[in-house]
Structures are given as C-alpha cells and as structure tokens.
Design brief:
Largest sheet: 4 strands, mixed
Number of domains: 1
CATH architecture: Roll
InterPro entries: Glyas_Bleomycin-R_OHBP_Dase, Glyas_Fos-R_dOase_dom, VOC_core
CATH class: Alpha Beta
Pfam families: Glyoxalase (PF00903)
Number of strands: 6
Radius of gyration: 15 Å
Oligomer: single chain
Strand order of the largest sheet: 3-6-5-4
Distance between the termini: 31 Å
Protein name: VOC domain-containing protein
CATH topology: 2,3-Dihydroxybiphenyl 1,2-Dioxygenase, domain 1
Length: 122
C-alpha cells in the first residue's frame, strides 16, 4: 500500500499510463483506495554494497532510497518515454545491464523510484 497526497495523479499515472489493471476500488468516509494488479511480485532483500552496484550499473551513481519498485515491460524505451510524458522524472535512460536486461530508472508519483526493465534474452 502506498499512501499519497495527490491521489488522482498517482492513480492516473500507475493505472492509466503504466497500465496496471484495476482489481477493485473502495470509498469509505471520504477516503479512496484502488487496488491495482501489478502482476507477480517478488521482494528483493539486498545489502548496501549490492544496491550501490545496481545503481552504478543502471544510473552511474547511488540514487535509490531503501525502496525501489521494478516493473517488467515489453518495451523499456517506449514505456520510459510514456511515463516521462506523464510526469515521471527520468533518472537514467534505458541501459543494457550485465544481466541482459534493458533497465531505465525514474522518479514516479508517490515518491517511488521505479525501474522499468525489459528482458533481452528469452
């Protein structure tokens, strides 16, 4: 769950631009929640040294906080461009990683840092 100040902006960005499917929506006592399907989730636990390595590969410097959300897409370049047009700030354009994915880094609504990645090998 991500708590946001600009609910409509975050909802439009993650649902309408990134394309997460709405599963349910509720309104209680003036508050709102939308549950969006983000596909299969994994939780990566890493130490600072490895996080620094990932940032160096994807961005060229340490930029991530303690949480970064990654979304696998079919076309990293197109999705990165679409998200930037919708207000995300590009930190790093799509870059081929040593593990053969095309990764971009952005700052999105709700103070979430995003990795948009495309697997280059099947």
């Amino acid at each position: 769950m991500v708590t946001v100040d600009d609910y409509e902006q975050a909802l439009a960005f993650y649902r309408d631009v990134l394309g997460l499917t709405e599963q349910a929506a509720y309104q209680v006592e003036g508050g709102h929640v939308h549950i969006l399907d983000a596909g299969r989730a994994t939780l990566e636990i890493t130490d600072r040294r490895h996080a620094e390595y990932i940032d160096e590969v994807e961005v060229g410097r340490r930029v991530a906080g303690h949480i970064r959300v990654a979304f696998e897409v079919d076309d990293s370049a197109a999705v990165t461009s679409r998200l930037a047009e919708a207000g995300a700030q590009i930190i790093a354009e799509p870059t081929v990683t040593p593990w053969q994915s095309l990764n971009a880094r952005l700052d999105g609504p709700a103070d979430l840092q995003l990795t948009i990645f495309q697997e280059l090998q099947s």
